[in-house]
């Protein structure tokens, strides 16, 4: 009886200990630790300025299919937040620009926003960051709102604190590169005079105090497109070109931002990239599927290696690629509507695996005792899909001269044979940067030399 009693007491104590451990672990996963440190991945922007997109549940499936690490949306849409529930994806939500002034002037409005857009969904939907506005400092038509931006951020933080969520959910905003008066050379980076002391300094002070991130929208494409005669395309695409000691434009742009932050006394604040990417088509010769695939694949590989930048080396920089879908209702130049990894019907414009990029980049390229080749699936019956894969591979960097008439591999003159040659040529070159052998389900790997 005594032994049974001891066993019962020990079992009860063990159960309580296990329960405490479980609760502690759940607290960490729900937000007691930095979500970006817990999940070293590459995020995706889920913009919805379109009238032909699939349901949010389908969008979540597509995010998972490319192994996105987290997702950012440009509002706090209830249908989207419900679709992301239990998805395991950390989520960044946004206070719309038109809501910032009201939230800045009224803590009651801020409390209501958090009560409406955070409390009903968290923690099943893993909200980790609230963006207060999107590129507000780029819009001169709402210049009167600029001084209200930081007070709005402070109010949202206070509203989260009332719910004991201030350490679980970070508060920030997004800033575009036009916020800088100078970005070249990077060491001379500085903010515009009209916002440096009035907006940027108090913003950086807030981010430093709350241990949040300074989010930047950084687009090497726009810098290259504005001056292609003097800026190398390879420099913008993480190629081998070097300018002023930098091997790529993204690092130079980020270091310019870090220099500007340091000039205001806050060089230690953590940075993140809220938007970056490359368009697949439009009114620019550089806007191609091949260049978009190169940029985003190389971007993911670089970031997941934790290389950082020359000014801040050996650092992971949380990053969101723009964008999940092409958005047909976005205004402006044609490129504005063509940044997506996916078409609205869910078909990919190019293959990318945001998790595989990490493995391939860190392991490098090594000779294998079990070589593989990427070939067309023999039973594939869709000739148009196979032709599309062939065209994509040749346009994205495969050496297709050998399958031209008179070439060494022109025979056998069949679509399957030519597609296999092109897909394998592309995959062998790009696999170390995260390319996969799929080509819209028309290809597979084989250990038999074709």
From TrEMBL:
<keyword id="KW-0325">Glycoprotein</keyword>
<dbReference type="GO" id="GO:0005886">
    <property type="term" value="C:plasma membrane"/>
</dbReference>
<dbReference type="GO" id="GO:0009506">
    <property type="term" value="C:plasmodesma"/>
</dbReference>
<dbReference type="GO" id="GO:0005975">
    <property type="term" value="P:carbohydrate metabolic process"/>
</dbReference>
<keyword id="KW-1015">Disulfide bond</keyword>
<keyword id="KW-0472">Membrane</keyword>
<feature type="signal peptide">
    <location>
        <begin position="1"/>
        <end position="33"/>
    </location>
</feature>
<dbReference type="InterPro" id="IPR017853">
    <property type="entry name" value="GH"/>
</dbReference>
<dbReference type="InterPro" id="IPR012946">
    <property type="entry name" value="X8"/>
</dbReference>
<dbReference type="GO" id="GO:0098552">
    <property type="term" value="C:side of membrane"/>
</dbReference>
<keyword id="KW-1003">Cell membrane</keyword>
<dbReference type="InterPro" id="IPR044965">
    <property type="entry name" value="Glyco_hydro_17_plant"/>
</dbReference>
<feature type="domain" description="X8">
    <location>
        <begin position="372"/>
        <end position="450"/>
    </location>
</feature>
<keyword id="KW-0449">Lipoprotein</keyword>
<dbReference type="InterPro" id="IPR000490">
    <property type="entry name" value="Glyco_hydro_17"/>
</dbReference>
<dbReference type="Pfam" id="PF00332">
    <property type="entry name" value="Glyco_hydro_17"/>
</dbReference>
<keyword id="KW-0378">Hydrolase</keyword>
<dbReference type="Pfam" id="PF07983">
    <property type="entry name" value="X8"/>
</dbReference>
<comment type="similarity">
    <text>Belongs to the glycosyl hydrolase 17 family.</text>
</comment>
<protein>
    <recommendedName>
        <fullName>glucan endo-1,3-beta-D-glucosidase</fullName>
        <ecNumber>3.2.1.39</ecNumber>
    </recommendedName>
</protein>
<keyword id="KW-0732">Signal</keyword>
<dbReference type="GO" id="GO:0042973">
    <property type="term" value="F:glucan endo-1,3-beta-D-glucosidase activity"/>
</dbReference>
<keyword id="KW-0336">GPI-anchor</keyword>
<keyword id="KW-0326">Glycosidase</keyword>
């Amino acid at each position: 009886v005594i032994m049974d009693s001891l066993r019962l007491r020990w079992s009860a104590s063990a159960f309580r200990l296990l329960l405490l451990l479980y609760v502690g672990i759940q607290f960490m996963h729900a937000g007691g630790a930095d979500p970006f440190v817990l999940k070293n991945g590459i995020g995706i922007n889920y913009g919805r300025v379109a009238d032909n997109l699939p349901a949010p549940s389908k969008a979540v499936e597509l995010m998972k299919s490319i192994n996105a690490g987290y997702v950012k949306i440009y509002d706090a849409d209830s249908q989207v937040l419900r679709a992301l529930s239990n998805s395991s994806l950390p989520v960044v939500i946004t206070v719309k620009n038109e809501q910032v002034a009201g939230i800045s002037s009224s803590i009651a409005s801020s409390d209501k926003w958090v009560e409406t857009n955070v409390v009903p969904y968290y923690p099943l939907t893993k909200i980790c960051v609230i963006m207060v506005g999107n590129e507000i400092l780029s819009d001169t038509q709402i210049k009167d709102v600029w001084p209200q931006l930081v007070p709005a951020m402070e109010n949202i933080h206070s509203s989260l604190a009332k719910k004991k969520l201030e350490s679980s959910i970070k508060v920030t905003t997004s800033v575009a590169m036009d916020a800088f008066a100078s970005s070249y050379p990077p060491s001379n980076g500085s903010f515009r005079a009209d916002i440096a002391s009035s907006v940027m300094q108090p913003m950086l002070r807030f981010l430093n105090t709350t241990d949040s991130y300074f989010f930047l929208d950084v687009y090497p494409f726009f810098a290259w497109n504005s001056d292609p005669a003097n800026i190398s395309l390879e420099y913008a695409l993480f190629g081998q070109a070097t300018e002023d000691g930098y091997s790529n434009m993204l690092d130079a742009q980020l270091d310019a931002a870090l220099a500007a932050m340091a000039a205001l006394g806050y060089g230690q604040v953590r940075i993140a990239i809220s938007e970056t990417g490359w368009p697949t088509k439009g009114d620019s010769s550089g806007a191609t599927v091949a260049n978009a695939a190169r940029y985003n694949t190389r971007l993911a590989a670089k970031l997941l290696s934790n290389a950082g930048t020359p000014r801040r080396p050996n650092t992971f920089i949380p990053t969101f690629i723009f964008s999940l879908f092409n958005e047909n209702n976005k205004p402006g130049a044609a490129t504005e509507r063509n940044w997506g990894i996916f078409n609205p019907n869910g078909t990919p414009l190019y293959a990318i695996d945001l998790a595989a990029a990490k493995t391939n980049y860190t392991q490098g390229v090594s000779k294998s005792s079990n070589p593989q080749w990427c070939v067309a699936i023999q039973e594939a019956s869709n000739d148009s899909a196979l032709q599309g894969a062939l065209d994509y591979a040749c346009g994205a960097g495969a050496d297709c001269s050998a399958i031209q008439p008179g070439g060494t591999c022109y025979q056998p003159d069949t679509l399957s044979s030519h597609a296999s040659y092109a897909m394998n040529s592309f995959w062998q070159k790009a696999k170390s940067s995260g390319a996969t052998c799929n080509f819209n389900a028309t290809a597979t790997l084989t250990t038999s030399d074709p």
